[in-house]
Amino acid sequence: MQKEGYRVSSAHTCREGQALASGHTFDMAILDINLPDGDGYEFCRWIKARSRIPVLFLSARDLEEDVLNGYEYGADDYVTKPFSMKIVLRKISVILSRETKRTDVYDDGFLKIDFELGAVQIEEKNCPITPTEYRILKKLIEHKGQLLTYSVLLDALWEEGVQLLDKHALAVNINRLRKKIETQEHGYISNVYGMGYIWK
Q: How far is CA 195 from the centre of its chain?
């Protein structure tokens, strides 16, 4: 997969996988069912409860019940072993492409964000925000319902060229953003004191 240009992080147990998922952001998860310290189905459910990233199962368990369980627990696709790597890579490409299209626009009826255009609207009226505020907004929405610690958020923004020096600078930008997009009836960003932020 790395030869195809994907950046890959691997874990061999549920515990290692949870540690990775808690400390980093990913575009997709590829899981097996049989793990040394747990069940791939439950790990899939754990992932889906915390983020919107797609999950692909690669497993030797090829019974109809196994495949249906995979989908029941939230998997986006299920491939049984042995498999063709070309087919797996094609499935990954299709899933990621579909997910990109799905997240091009956020619209809850009050706040609308077109990620392709980088445009923000409040009740169909343009809401000017800075490039830094936009990147913070996008990163939080990508991980809706998931706590992003100060360090994880700062690192993720740094990778996109936003060089905020510390959590105080981050807080200043988030407070400005909240004043622009939030009202008493519409609150989006929750500050978990001493830890980080959550898009509710």
A: 18
Tally the domains of the chain.
2
Q: What is the distance, to the nearest Å, from the Cα of residue 78 to the centroid of all Cα atoms in its chain?
A: 20
Q: Which of 98, 42, 102 is nearest to 75 (CA)?
A: 42
Shared-domain flag, residues 121 and 166: yes
In terms of Cβ atoms closer than 10 Å to its own Cβ (0-12, 13-18, 19+), residue 40 is buried
136-160: burial string, b at 16+ Cβ within 10 Å, e else: bbbbbbbbeebbbbbebbbebbeee
Confirm if 160 and 117 have CB atoms less than 8 A apart: no
pTM, two decimals, is: 0.53
78-103 pLDDT, tens digit each: 999 999 999 999 999 988 887 665 55
Determine the structural domain holding residue 82 and report its residue range.
2-102
Q: What's the rounded Cα separation, in Å, for the pair 63 and 190?
A: 43
| Residue 87 shares a structural domain with residue 119 | no
Q: pLDDT of 31-88, one tens digit each?
A: 999 999 999 999 999 988 777 789 999 999 999 999 999 999 999 999 999 999 999 9
